[in-house]
Amino acid sequence: DMEETYLLNVEGVKKKILHGGYGPLPHFQDGCKITFHFQTLKDDFERTVIDDSRVAGIPMEIIVGKMFKIEVWETLLTSMRIGEVAEFWCDPVVSMYALVSKGMRKIAEGKDPLEGQKHRCGMGNMFDYHTTGFADLDELQRTPQPLIFIMELFKVEDPSSYKRDTWAMNNEEKLAAVPKLHTEGNRLVLARKFKEAAEKYQEAVICLRNVQAKEKPWEEEWLKLEKLITPLVLNYCQCQLELGEYYEVLEHTTDLLQKNNENVKAYFKRAKAHAAVWNEKEARADFLRVAQLDPSLAAAVRKELKLLGERMRRKHVEDRPSHYF
User: Which stretches make up the AIP/AIPL N-terminal FKBP-type PPIase domain (predicted)?
Assistant: First the structure.
């Protein structure tokens, strides 16, 4: 039976192999992606389960040397062979677990684990908000205790073989991803796949916003990034107009115009969205601002205003109580 317990060369960690893996120990280079299932249990009589990736149905992935540094897991996983199932006992010092779990739960919900963070450092966040947003994790924060991790290792992929999620990238990688996403979005627009295109533009915006969050607002670097963000947001809005998501267009164009009140394209797209949701007064004001900022668009604006007038008249006829007819 393989159930011998032995210490990794790490203080405070014991390992028990429940099911042997196969092949040699994988090469865990920086940037490689490890796919695994895990369970986290308390070291109490009932072995209370805190997290179980199988419940979510999707295996976990971490990038070696990256992510919200979960060193202890990197240590555990890199001791494993493919197909191995092992149980690790970790003393409280080792398990900065609440932070890690919070990040993973957000990913399982499809959210960016870094979303809404003021600081880049997870610890700072904790002290800022005094809560992880999860009661069971808050309790672990307050009373550090040993934890048991049961891990099953599925695969290890080297960095060139998989597409990295944006949150797992560093700044250089994020900036390099943007033009690719932009081009991809434009290609999808030409194919009239507006929903898919919008997702590409949005991903590019998120990359840039994450980089921008580390700069001081309105300073040179921040403004440079804002200049790159603006056309992507406008393309995103164009897709949303095509998809009939007018309120989303109003929100994003208004946000752009608060930062730069001379953005002709933002006024034009906002005017179209206002017109679509029957805000006649606002649509007219935005269309007139377009013509004023760019006289070469005067003819296009006249055409839009004529269309708007006709639509409003039709609506008034349709809205009139029927006993007038």
Answer: 29-155
First-residue to last-residue Cα distance in the chain? 90
Provide the pLDDT for residue 126.
39
Distance CA 283, CA 229 (A): 25
Q: What integer pLDDT is reported at residue 215 of this predicted model?
A: 87
Specify the long-range contacts of residues 177-186, CB closer than 8 Å, at least 24 apart.
Answer: 177/203, 177/204, 177/207, 178/204, 178/207, 178/208, 178/228, 178/232, 181/207, 182/232, 182/235, 185/232, 185/235, 186/235
* Residue pLDDT, tens place only, 100-113: 677 667 766 666 65
pLDDT given at position 323: 61
Rounded-to-integer distance, Cα 170 and Cα 105, Å: 21
Backbone angles phi, psi at 29, to 5 degrees: -80, 160
Residues of the chain falling short of pLDDT 50 = 1-3, 68, 116-129
Instruction: Give the domain ranges of the chain.
Output: 5-161, 166-324
What class is the 166-324 domain?
mainly alpha
Three-state DSSP class for 82? strand
CA 111 to chain centre: 5
As a whole number of angstroms, the distance between CA 206 and CA 116 comes to 12
**CATH number, domain 5-161:** 3.10.50.40
Q: Matching CATH topology for 5-161 and 166-324? A: no
Give the predicted TM-score (pTM) of the model.
0.55
Neighbours of 16 (CB within 10 A): 16
Cα separations (Å) of 154 from 34, 85, 215? 8, 10, 39
| Res 90: pLDDT | 86
